[in-house]
Design a protein that fits this description.
Distance between the termini: 66 Å
Radius of gyration: 25 Å
CATH superfamily of the largest domain: Response regulator
Order of helices and strands: HHHEHEHEHEEHEHEHHEHEHEHEE
Number of helices: 13
Structural class: alpha/beta
Strand content: 15-25%
CATH architecture of the largest domain: 3-Layer(aba) Sandwich
Number of domains: 3
Shape: elongated
Strand order of the largest sheet: 2-1-3-4-5-11
Helix content: 40-55%
CATH topology of the largest domain: Rossmann fold
Largest sheet: 6 strands, parallel
Number of strands: 12
């Protein structure tokens, strides 16, 4: 079987040293064409599959990238992780996943443990202070997703654009009495969005914006806000993310409030589940595949000594069935 064939088996069949086989697989330009062809033919005949994790051991590297997420069950993080894995496989690198269960302690432990065995670490929406996590990595390059600050390398979604797109869409539909569901106070993105909202409230006198209490960025968090939203008699809601928005819709429906006939709802992230719901969810879409690709690009730059600190990805609006004219 292919997985039982070793590099030494290939070397014997090709009549070369095992190191030559390794060079053909990792740096073929360093081997003359005649020898390279013999090795490639031997690889094909034996069905040898290279061990990607071991390929760069001689150089002290593992050809492995780690990605840490607070909740792999959240489709937002799953989509980014999938994008990182897909992109990494094209350059024959392995990806290790760690779910820290939204725990600062588990996140830090994962950083310390993984740093010994990987070329770099991507941290999505860090629970801990990014500066502390970067120190815990002991020199291993770290790229943060959706966290900005300090001298850390980050790829972020433009949070200011998210809230502006949502509010402007609702205003175009004639909504001026709007509730905004907040995410957890500790989130970097929550702080940015609340600041933008504060400026909108001051500058747009025709708007009556109610910022609701901070709740978890999930379905249950959104659903828990339905009673308060109903009591405010607003005509529209901007949720922190899509999962929250879906919870708001289900909660309002349970109270007999029609969406979008009585209340319009906007989400954020652009998760596929929003498209198949009834009504389908209007959302501010974050290009999650691109975010994963950019994170890996930044990681490669860090590994090679470059230091591009921040890349901001722009979201865009997809209007669907959950919003309608006031």
């Amino acid at each position: 079987m292919a997985n039982s064939v070793t590099l030494n088996d290939v070397a014997r069949l090709a009549g070369v040293h095992p190191g030559t086989v390794s060079r053909v697989l990792s740096r073929p330009e360093l081997v003359n064409s005649q020898t390279r062809e013999k090795v490639i033919k031997a690889v094909e005949e034996t069905g040898y599959v290279p061990n990607l994790a071991a390929r760069h051991l001689a150089g002290g590297k593992s050809a492995t990238i780690a990605i840490i997420v607070p909740d792999i069950m959240n489709p937002f993080f799953a989509a980014i992780a999938h994008s990182v894995q897909y992109t990494a496989r094209r350059s024959e690198r392995l990806v290790l996943f760690a779910d820290c269960n939204s725990s600062a302690m588990e996140e830090r432990e994962a950083i310390i443990s993984l740093a010994r065995n990987v070329d770099g670490i991507i941290v999505c929406a860090p629970v801990s202070d990014p500066n502390e996590l970067a120190k815990a990595a002991l020199g291993v390059p770290v790229v943060f997703v959706n966290s900005e600050g300090g001298k850390n390398t980050s790829v972020v979604i433009d949070q200011e654009a998210i809230i502006k797109l949502a509010i402007e869409h609702l205003m175009v539909l004639g909504h001026t009495n709007i509730a905004v569901v907040s995410g957890p106070r500790s989130f970097w993105s929550t702080k940015i969005r609340n600041k933008v909202l504060s400026n909108l409230i001051k500058s747009r006198r025709e708007l009556n914006i109610s910022l609701l209490k901070a709740v978890e960025p999930n379905f249950e968090g959104g659903k828990s806000c339905a009673k308060e939203i109903r009591s405010l008699r607003v005509t529209a809601v901007a949720a922190f993310n899509d999962l929250q928005a879906l919870g708001v819709i289900v909660g309002l429906t349970g109270f007999g409030v029609g969406v979008p006939n009585e209340v319009s709802v906007v989400g954020s992230d652009g998760l596929p589940i929003g498209e198949i719901m009834i009504p389908s969810l209007t959302s501010i879409v974050a290009p999650l595949n691109r975010i994963g690709e950019v994170a890996l690009e930044l990681m490669d730059k860090r590994i090679h000594g470059e230091s591009e600190l921040l890349v901001k990805v722009s979201p865009y609006l997809i209007p669907r069935g959950s919003t309608a004219p006031c």
